[in-house]
Amino acid sequence: VSGDAFSVRCSGEAAKVPEKTINFMTDPSNAGDMDSRLVQVYYTMRLAQTGGYSLVIAQEGADIVMKADPAARAAA
């Protein structure tokens, strides 16, 4: 946590961002067949949007990091 921004780091030997998640976060119309994992991404994105946060998920070395930043609120 840094001010209003926060991040979640996931570590593990097989940590990765699924391709469906990347495609969906880039363009939600790419949802294709919604499954139980992708619906979690959908609701996470909706919660962030409702709260005025931008949301980024990326691979950092062997870890996956999801960052929520209130920058979207400042730009509004």
Q: What topology does this entry show?
A:
Elements: E1 6-10, H1 19-26, H2 36-51, E2 54-60, E3 63-69, H3 71-75
Antiparallel strand pairs: 1-3, 2-3
How is this structure best described in words?
With 76 residues, this protein is an alpha+beta fold. The protein has a single domain, classed as Histidine kinase-like ATPase, C-terminal domain (Heat Shock Protein 90, 2-Layer Sandwich). Helix content is 38%, strand content 25%. The chain is built from 3 helices and 3 strands; from the N terminus they run E-H-H-E-E-H. The protein has helices spanning 19-26, 36-51, 71-75; strands at residues 6-10, 54-60, 63-69. The protein has a 3-stranded antiparallel β-sheet with strand order 1-3-2. The longest helix is centred in the middle third of the chain and has 16 residues, at 36-51. The radius of gyration is 13 Å and the shape is flat.
